[in-house]
Design brief:
The complex is a heterodimer of chains A (about 375) and B (about 525). Chain A is of the alpha+beta class and about 375 residues long. Chain A has ten helices and ten strands. In chain A, the strands form two sheets. Chain A has a five-stranded mixed beta sheet, with no helix packed on it. In chain B, about 60% of the residues are buried. Classes of the chains: A alpha+beta (about 375), B mainly alpha (about 525). Bound molecules: protoporphyrin IX containing FE (HEM) and copper (II) ion (2 copies). One copper (II) ion (CU) binds next to α8 of chain B.
Chain lengths: ~375, ~525
C-alpha cells in the first residue's frame, strides 16, 4: 500500500491531522499504481508532477513566509524602492518554461502509447445505457448486461435503513462482471444508447466517454489476475452514481472456460425461447428482470416517480393495450429516458417482464405473453 | 473624449442627492447605487447557492442515501454551480467595477448609466426564473452546469426556462462589459494613460473583452439545445447527423475563457491590496498587464482540456495539453510578482491583506492541481473525479471569492465612511481559511482514490474524508454569517474613516472623501 510519506502534504494542518488519525493505514490517499505498464507510467508521472509542484510551492510560499516574518512594519521594516527587474522577470519566465518541457516530453510519449489501439488480441464492445453497461465480446459473441448488484441497490434506496458498511463492495459490485484474460492486449470499443457515459477502471488508468452514435477506442493489457473495480465517470442522469464496472482478470485457460460456459448458457436460453412458458414461470422470471432493468425508473411498486417516470399501475396501456406495451418495451420512446430493450433482453426475458407488468400491482389482466409473440413482434 | 464627459454633465442635476425611498434603487443610474445593488444581490445569492451546497454536503456526509433523491441531488449540484458562477462571482465583480472603476480612472460615472440600471435589474428576474424551475414538473435542471446533451435534453419543463434565464444573464453580462469598456476607453481623467491605470481597471478591461467574446457563444450553444428539443433540429443528435461532442466544444470555447472571467478581476483586486499593505509599489506593473493579456489570449485555445476523454485525435490532445501547460507561465509570473511586491516591504496585516495573502497561497495550490490536470495521460485518471472538484474550488473559493471579500474589506471604509470591526474581520478571515481547507483539501484525496464527481452516494472507503469535508462545509458556511454581521455593522456606524483610509494606499479613489459624494470627479482630476 502507499504509505503516507509518499504523499507530500501541501497543507501542514491537514497533514498533522492525518498523522494523528489512527486508522490511517486503511485510507487511500493517492492515485493507484494500477496493474498495467501504462498505469504505472501514469502513476510515476503523477508523482513527478506532484513533487515539482511541491518544490515550487516550497520556494514560493517560503519566500512569502520570510517576507511575512521579516519584512513587517511592526519589526520596523522600511520598504525598499525597487519595483521591477528585467533579469528576474526573464528568469522566472524561462525557468518555468524549461520545467514544463521536462514534463511535456514524457507525457507526450505516454499519450502516444495510450492511443495506439492496433494489434489487439481481444475486442470488447461496451455500450452504456441508463444505468447499466452492456458488454459484447466481438471475437466470441458472448454478450450480457451488467448492472448494480441487487444488494447494493436495496441498501442504496433513500432511507433504506441498511448500513452500507454491511454490504460487500457497496456500490462497486455488479451482477455480471466483465471477464478478461491477463497478458493480452484488449481493445475496447465504447458507445452508448441514450446519453454520454464514461468507462473507467483506475487500476488500468483508462477512461473514455461512451457517446451515443459514435464509437471510441481504448486499450489495456492487464498484468495480474484479480478483481478490478471502477465506475461510470460522466454524469448520465439520476442513477449515474449507481452503474459500477467490475472486471475479473483471469488466466487465459480460465478465461477460455468462462467463454465456453457463457456460450453454452446462451444456447440454452435460445432453446427455451421456442417453447411454451407457464404463467408462474413467466411471473417469476419477469419479477427478476423487472427488478434489474426497470425498477430504477418505474419503481418496485410500479408507480414510477411523478413528473419523471410514469406509473405502470392500472394505466390504460397496462389494462387494454398489449400491442402498445410490447412496442414501447421493444423500441423505447425516442427523446425520453424509456429506451429500446429489444437489443438488451432476449425474447424470454421480454415476454416475462411484459407478463409481469400486466399482472403485478393489481393489474391482473391475466395476459400471458409467450417468447414466440415477442419473436414475431421483432420481425414486424 | 474627456471633454464629452464633462460637457454631458453640465446640464445634469449632479449636485442633488439621490431621490428618497425604494424608487431610488429601482430608477437609479448612479454607479455607486448600482454597485451597491450588485454587491447585495451577489451576497444574497451566495447564501442561496451556499444552502444548496450544504444540501449536497449533508447527503454526502455518509454513504447511503439519507436526505434527498438522486434526481434532486443532481438539481442541487447544477443550480449550485450556476448560481455561484453567474449569480455570485460575476455580479460581485461587476458591483466592484461599478463602484470603483469610475473613481479609479477619475470619471464622474459609468459611460452608459441607463444601460447600467438595466443590466442590473435583469438579474433578479433571470435568477427568479432559474430558481422557479425547481418547482416545475420534472424538477429543475439536473444535467450539471455544463448542460451536456443528450442528458440535458431529458430535462422536464425546466429546460426552456433555464435557457431563457441563461440568455438574460448573458445579456446582462454583455451590457455590463460594454459599459465597462466604454467607461475605460472614454472617461479616463486627462493624463491617465493606459499604462497608468490601476491593475483592477486593467484586469476588468481585459475581462470585459472576454465577456463580449464568449457570452454570445454560450447563448448560441443553449439556443441550439432549445431547437434540438423543440424545433426538430439535430445539432447534437447523431441519429440526425449531429454530434453531442460538438456541444462540448462550443460550451468550453465559452467555458474556459469564462473561468478566467471568474479570476482575472480578483487578480486585479489582490494587485491593489498587496502593494497598499506592503507599502511598496506593485512589482513588475508592465509584466502584470502583459501576463493578464496573454492569459486571456491563451484562454481561447485551451478549451478542449475539459474534454480529453471524449476521444479526440492524438494531435488534438497534444495541442490542448501543450497550450494548457503554457498558461502556467504567465500565471506563474503573476504569483512571483506578488511575492516580490511583499519582499522587503513594510507589511501590516489588516483583513484585506489577510484575504489577499490567503488568495495568493490557495490560488497557487489550485494552479498546481490545474497544471497536473493539464497533463493529458494523467488527466484520464483525474477527469470527472473529486480531484477536479478540489481544483476548481481552490481557484474559485479561496481564489476568486477571497479576492472579492478582500476587495470589499479594502473599500468598505471608503464606501460607508466607517471603519469595519477589525477584530471581527480577522476572525472572519481565520475561520474562513481554516474551514475552506478542511472543506476542499480532502477532496484531493478522495478524488485520487477514485471517487467520481456528481454522485449522491459513494463506496464506504471514501467515508472519512467526506465527513471531514462536510464538517468543513458547515464551518465555512456559518463563518460567512460573520461577514454579513460585519458589513451591516459597518454600514450602521463605527469609527470614522478618513479619506486616505490605509496608510499605504495609492490611487484616485483615496483622494475623495469617505464616503464619497454621490457624484465624484466632475470636473475630472488631472494626472501628471
Ligand atoms: C493554472 C491555471 C489553470 C490550469 C492549468 C487549469 C486546468 C484545468 C483543467 C485541465 C481542467 C479540466 C479537468 C477535467 O475536467 O478533467 C480544469 C477544470 C476547471 N477549472 Fe481550471 N485550470 C486553471 C485555473 C483555473 C481558474 C483560474 C479557474 C477559475 C477561477 C478554474 C476553474 C475551473 C473549473 C470551474 C473547472 C471545472 C469545470 C467542470 O468540468 O465543471 N481553473 N482546469
Ligand atoms: Cu454515469
Ligand atoms: Cu479550462
Amino acid at each position: 500500500m502507499h504509505t503516507f510519506h509518499r504523499i507530500p502534504g501541501i497543507l501542514p494542518g491537514a497533514a498533522l491531522w492525518l498523522f494523528s488519525h489512527s486508522s490511517l493505514a486503511d485510507w487511500e490517499l493517492n492515485l493507484t499504481e494500477g496493474v498495467t505498464e501504462i498505469s504505472r507510467e501514469v502513476y510515476d508521472m503523477h508523482m513527478f508532477v506532484l513533487w515539482i509542484c511541491v518544490w515550487i510551492g516550497v520556494l514560493v510560499f517560503g519566500a512569502m513566509a520570510i517576507s511575512i516574518v521579516r519584512h513587517r512594519k511592526s519589526r520596523g521594516a522600511v520598504p525598499a524602492g525597487f519595483h521591477e527587474s528585467t533579469f528576474a522577470e526573464v528568469l522566472w519566465t524561462v525557468i518555468p518554461f524549461a520545467i514544463l518541457i521536462t514534463m511535456a516530453w514524457p507525457a507526450a510519449k505516454t499519450l502516444i502509447a495510450m492511443e495506439d489501439t492496433s494489434d489487439a488480441d481481444i475486442t470488447l464492445k461496451v455500450t452504456g445505457h441508463q444505468w447499466k453497461w452492456e458488454y459484447e465480446y466481438l471475437d466470441s459473441g458472448v454478450k450480457f448486461i451488467s448492472s448494480l448488484h441487487p444488494e447494493s441497490r436495496e441498501a442504496a434506496a433513500l432511507g433504506s435503513g441498511i448500513d452500507p458498511a454491511t454490504v460487500d463492495n457497496y456500490l462497486l459490485e455488479v451482477d455480471n462482471p466483465v471477464v478478461l484474460p491477463v497478458g493480452k492486449k484488449i481493445r475496447f470499443l465504447l458507445t452508448a444508447s441514450d446519453v454520454i457515459h464514461a468507462w473507467w477502471i483506475p487500476d488500468f488508468a483508462i477512461k473514455k466517454d461512451a457517446i451515443p452514435g459514435f464509437i471510441n477506442e481504448m486499450w489495456t493489457n492487464i498484468e495480474e489476475e484479480g478483481i478490478y473495480r471502477g465506475q461510470c465517470a460522466e454524469l448520465c442522469g439520476r442513477d449515474h452514481g449507481f452503474m459500477p464496472i467490475v472486471v475479473h482478470a483471469l488466466s487465459q485457460e480460465k478465461y477460455d472456460e468462462w467463454v465456453s460456459a457463457q456460450l453454452a448458457a446462451a444456447e440454452a436460453v435460445a432453446a427455451s425461447a421456442d417453447r411454451e412458458w407457464a404463467m408462474d414461470e413467466l411471473m417469476q422470471r419477469g419479477e427478476k428482470v423487472y427488478g434489474t432493468y426497470c425498477v430504477a425508473c418505474h419503481q418496485a411498486n410500479g408507480e414510477g416517480i411523478a413528473g419523471a417516470f410514469p406509473s405502470l399501475k392500472g394505466t390504460p396501456m397496462m389494462l387494454n393495450d398489449l400491442e402498445g406495451h410490447i412496442d414501447i418495451v421493444l423500441n423505447g420512446k425516442p427523446g425520453t429516458a424509456m429506451q429500446a430493450f429489444s437489443t438488451q433482453l432476449n425474447d424470454a426475458d421480454l415476454a416475462a417482464v411484459i407478463t409481469y407488468e400486466r399482472n403485478a400491482w393489481g393489474n391482473d389482466t391475466g395476459d400471458v405473453i409467450q417468447p414466440a409473440t415477442i419473436k414475431a413482434a421483432r420481425i414486424q | 473624449m474627456n471633454a464629452y464627459a464633462t460637457d454631458a454633465h453640465h446640464d445634469d442635476d449632479h449636485h442633488h442627492g439621490p431621490p428618497p425611498g425604494l424608487m431610488r434603487w429601482v430608477t437609479t443610474t448612479n454607479h455607486k447605487d448600482i454597485g451597491t445593488l450588485y454587491l447585495w444581490f451577489s451576497l444574497i445569492m451566495f447564501f442561496i447557492g451556499g444552502v444548496m451546497a450544504l444540501v449536497i454536503r449533508t447527503e454526502l456526509f455518509q454513504p447511503g442515501l439519507q436526505v434527498v433523491d438522486p434526481h434532486f441531488f443532481n438539481q442541487m449540484t447544477t443550480l449550485h454551480a450556476l448560481i455561484m458562477i453567474f449569480g455570485v462571482v460575476m455580479p460581485a465583480f461587476v458591483g466592484l467595477a461599478n463602484w470603483m472603476l469610475p473613481m479609479m480612472v477619475g470619471a464622474p460615472d459609468m459611460a452608459l448609466p441607463r444601460m447600467n440600471n438595466w443590466s442590473f435589474w435583469i438579474l433578479p428576474f433571470g435568477f427568479a426564473m432559474m430558481l422557479a424551475t425547481l418547482f416545475m414538473e420534472g424538477g429543475g435542471p439536473a444535467a450539471g452546469w455544463t448542460i451536456y446533451p443528450p442528458l440535458s435534453l431529458q430535462t422536464g419543463n425546466a429546460l426552456p426556462y433555464l435557457i431563457f434565464s441563461i440568455h438574460l444573464l448573458g445579456v446582462s453580462s454583455i451590457m455590463g462589459a460594454i459599459n465597462i469598456i466604454a467607461t475605460i476607453m472614454n472617461l479616463r481623467a486627462p493624463g491617465m494613460t493606459y499604462m497608468k491605470m490601476p491593475l483592477f481597471v486593467w484586469t476588468w478591461f481585459i475581462t470585459a473583452y472576454l465577456l463580449i467574446a464568449v457570452m454570445p457563444v454560450l447563448a448560441g450553444a443553449v439556443t441550439m439545445l432549445l431547437t434540438d428539443k423543440f424545433f426538430g433540429t439535430s445539432f447534437f443528435d447523431a441519429a440526425g447527423g449531429g454530434d453531442p461532442v460538438m456541444f462540448q466544444h462550443i460550451f468550453w470555447f465559452f467555458g474556459h475563457p469564462e473561468v478566467y472571467i471568474l479570476i482575472l478581476p480578483s487578480f486585479g483586486l489582490v494587485s491593489e491590496i498587496i502593494p497598499t499593505f506592503s507599502r511598496k509599489k506593485l512589482f513588475g506593473y508592465n509584466s502584470m498587464v502583459y501576463a493578464t493579456a496573454s492569459i486571456a489570449l491563451l484562454s481561447f485555445i485551451v478549451w478542449a482540456h475539459h474534454m480529453f476523454t471524449v476521444g479526440m485525435p492524438l494531435a488534438g490532445e497534444m495541442f490542448f495539453m501543450f497550450t494548457t501547460m503554457l498558461i502556467a507561465v504567465p500565471t506563474g509570473v503573476k504569483v512571483f510578482n506578488w511575492v516580490s511586491t511583499m519582499w522587503q516591504g513594510a507589511m501590516t496585516f489588516e483583513t484585506p491583506m489577510l484575504f489577499a495573502l490567503g488568495f495568493v497561497i490557495m490560488f497557487t495550490i489550485g494552479g498546481f492541481s490545474g497544471l497536473m490536470l493539464a497533463m493529458t495521460p494523467i488527466d484520464f485518471q483525474y477527469h470527472d473525479t473529486y480531484f477536479v472538484v478540489a481544483h476548481f474550488h481552490y481557484v474559485l473559493v479561496p481564489g476568486a471569492i477571497f479576492g472579492i471579500i478582500g476587495g470589499v474589506y479594502y473599500w468598505l471604509p471608503k464606501w460607508t465612511g466607517n471603519m469595519y470591526d477589525e477584530k471581527l474581520g480577522q476572525a472572519h478571515f481565520w475561520l474562513s481559511t481554516i474551514f475552506v481547507n478542511i472543506l476542499f483539501f480532502p477532496m484531493h484525496f478522495v478524488g485520487l482514490a477514485g471517487m467520481p464527481r456528481r454522485i449522491p452516494d459513494y463506496a464506504v472507503q471514501f467515508t472519512d474524508f467526506n465527513q471531514v469535508a462536510t464538517i468543513g462545509a458547515f464551518g465555512f458556511g456559518l463563518s460567512q454569517i460573520l461577514f454579513l454581521v460585519l458589513v451591516i455593522k459597518c454600514i450602521r456606524g463605527g469609527k470614522k474613516a478618513d479619506d486616505q483610509v490605509w496608510e499605504g494606499a495609492q490611487g484616485l479613489e483615496w483622494t475623495v472623501s469617505s464616503p464619497p459624494p454621490y457624484h465624484t470627479f466632475s470636473p475630472q482630476p488631472v494626472i501628471k
